[in-house]
Design a protein that fits this description.
single chain, 603 residues, alpha/beta, ABC transporter transmembrane region fold, Rossmann fold, 3 domains, six-stranded mixed sheet, 64% helix, elongated, disordered N terminus, binds adenosine-5'-diphosphate, binds magnesium ion, transmembrane helix
């Protein structure tokens, strides 16, 4: 308890003492929890603790034998005694180095294992979060928790605990030896402690502040570089390369200034501390000399004492530093645990997987509001059917809520009220994997992954036979262009399919959707980058797939004239529905859209 109180004041933000207490309590809980995460490494850690103890025992005896050697040399010299003392000194010195090496190695090994474990846990938890989480959370925040905070946390556990423990135990050993030599001399070494303490505290506060500022400026600088590199086309076309280089240089200058200030602060601090140490040592030597003269201690003992004292000074400083590090990393632990403990708002606990499926979807009085925009209702009391094997078109002005309907079908979000049913059963009762095998989506802007064409079509279908993937490619009318690629199905598509054209990407995305043999295929303006002929071909081959319902959100209204039903979605409501002919006759929203469209495109 004392140890925590010791380090925390200059690390935690200045809040009321009540909040301080809560913060400390939380840090302590996080720390205990982290220790639990280290459980699988108990064998390595226990080994490390044993080596730690052994190394320290060895180390403690070196100054002792050094003093003895000096006493032997300065009184009536006996060769055997001298050799024995030298032998022990060498023995303890070699053994303690070897043990210290083993201890360090084991701690670092456990640290890497813990980092890896934490990263995987965190990644698992994050990747399973609902889409709303990703909309309200910056990717940079997630990746920084994943890489920096996990590393800092495990460093605190395995690394700092290692050093703190070692130092603490060593301190006890050192002071025991010192007191056994002379308690008066020991007391003298404490005289400068209050001053050291104050300097230490001031330094910690100021230095920590600067360290954070340096980190911030490094982050800002890399943000600037990232921004410039990502918009390099714009930079070139405005001939702004030199200006941008200057902007980047300014950010580098800021880092440099802060780093210089940080290092100067450190230099002044070290100078002060070393001066105090020197003064203490001089006082000690003067007093020690009177002790030697009056025969209380030998000069060898005095040498041992000085050696111990030199160690002790460093160690107290190190403990203070390490404790503040540990408290600091408890903050990082909090960040890691925050995401680790977050429960996705869309539950994935459904377990229903019927063998037979009709494949009829029903929207029943569905209303929806985006969590990130709680004041605007995007869908208001929508009801419609998607009968098995039918083609439904969803049309309407942009922003009407079409993509939102798709997101609800994909269970990216839960409806605010109402239900979506599959064969009469709410979709959240189906097993997550099952539902996603039955509903396939080709999104407005399809995302491909770097890898081959074949890997992209088979995404999420590790063991699918090659023929299944090729069949999907044929149905998506993608095979002709795939075979034209240098290595056919084994051609790399580049990062997000950058080596393919927009139309090719879309056909590949359709093939990927078909490869899992869905019962409902959703094309969300998926054909917008295809020419009319290709679009027609694809639709024809899709219609030929038995039992497949299509939900088409189309950009060109002409392509959906043959749909079994057309739903017009406007402002989150469905003012019209029917076949093309019925809707044209009605001369309502659809008619106007069609009219506007024809006018716009001059068709
Ligand atoms: P459509 O696909 O018909 O063009 P959307 O379903 O994409 O329309 O959008 C419907 C409304 O919801 C729009 O007003 C849009 O601004 C809003 N919206 C869409 N996505 C989000 C989101 N992720 N968070 C908040 N609001 C959104
Ligand atoms: Mg849309």
């Amino acid at each position: 308890c004392l140890l925590w109180d010791w380090a925390s004041p200059h690390i935690l933000p200045k809040e009321s003492s009540e909040a301080d207490k809560n913060g400390e309590e939380r840090n302590r809980q996080n720390f205990v929890r982290l220790l639990k995460y280290s459980n699988p490494d108990w064998l390595f850690l226990s080994g490390a603790f044993i080596f730690l103890a052994l190394a320290l025992i060895g180390e403690m005896f070196i100054p002792f034998y050094m003093g003895r050697v000096i006493d032997i040399l300065s009184s009536n010299y006996k060769e055997t005694e001298f050799l024995v003392a030298m032998f022990y000194m060498a023995l303890f010195s070699i053994a303690s180095s070897a043990f210290a090496g083993c201890r360090g190695g084991l701690f670092i090994f456990s640290m890497f294992r813990l980092t890896r474990r934490l990263r995987l846990l965190l990644f698992r938890s994050v990747i399973k979060q609902d889409i709303a989480f990703f909309e309200t959370t910056k990717t940079g925040d997630i990746t920084s928790r994943l890489s920096n905070d996990t590393a800092r946390v495990s460093r605190s556990i395995a690394g700092n605990v290692n050093i703190t423990l070692r130092t603490l135990v060593k301190c006890i050993g050192v002071y025991s030896f010192m007191i056994s030599i002379s308690w008066q001399l020991t007391l003298l070494t404490f005289l400068s402690s209050p001053l050291t303490w104050i300097i230490q505290k001031l330094y910690n506060r100021y230095h920590q502040d600067l360290v954070e500022k340096v980190q911030d400026s490094v982050a800002r600088s890399s943000d600037i570089a990232k921004e410039i590199l990502e918009s390099v086309k714009t930079v070139h076309s405005f001939d702004a390369a030199e200006d941008e280089a200057k902007r980047y240089d300014d950010s580098l200058q800021e880092i440099h200034n802060l780093q210089t200030r940080r290092d100067m602060v450190r230099a002044v601090y070290l100078l002060l501390i070393r001066t105090i140490n020197l003064v203490t040592q001089v006082a000690m030597l003067m007093y020690g000399q009177t002790l030697i003269e009056s025969g209380f201690i030998t000069s060898g003992k005095m040498v041992s004492f000085i050696l111990y004292q030199m160690e002790s000074g460093d160690h107290i400083r190190l403990i203070v530093h390490m404790l503040s590090e540990i408290t600091h990393s408890a903050g990082a632990a909090h960040k890691v645990f925050q995401y680790l403990d977050r429960k996705p708002q869309v539950s994935t606990s459904g377990s229903y997987c019927p063998e037979q499926l009709h494949g009829g979807f029903v929207f029943k009085n569905v209303s929806f509001t985006y969590p990130s925009r709680p004041d605007t209702a995007v869908l208001q009391d929508i009801s419609f059917n998607l009968p098995p094997g039918s083609i439904t078109a969803l049309v309407g002005p942009s922003g009407g809520g079409k993509t939102t309907c798709v997101s609800l079908l994909e269970r990216f979000y839960e409806p605010t009220s109402g239900e979506i049913l599959l064969d009469g059963i709410p979709i959240q009762q189906y097993k997550h994997q099952y539902l996603h095998a039955k509903v396939a989506l080709v999104a407005q802007e399809p995302v491909l992954f770097s890898g081959t064409v074949k890997q992209n079509i088979g995404y999420g279908l590790e063991h699918a036979p090659e023929e299944q993937l090729k069949e999907a490619a044929r149905k998506a009318n993608a095979e002709p262009f795939i075979l034209g690629l240098p290595e056919g199905y084994n051609t790399e598509v580049g990062e997000n399919g950058s080596q393919l054209g927009a139309g090719q990407k879309q056909r590949l995305a359709i093939a990927r959707a078909l490869a899992r043999k869905p019962r409902l295929l959703i094309l969300d303006e998926a054909s917008s980058s295809l020419d009319a002929e290709t679009e027609h071909e694809i639709q024809k081959s899709l219609q030929g797939i038995e039992g497949l319902s299509l939900l088409i959100i189309a950009h060109r209204l002409r392509t959906i004239e043959k749909a079994d039903q057309i739903l017009v979605l406007e402002g989150g409501r469905l003012p019209e529905r029917g076949t093309h002919e019925e809707l044209v006759e009605r001369q309502g929203v659809y008619y106007k859209l069609l009219h506007g469209h024809v006018l716009q495109n001059g068709e």
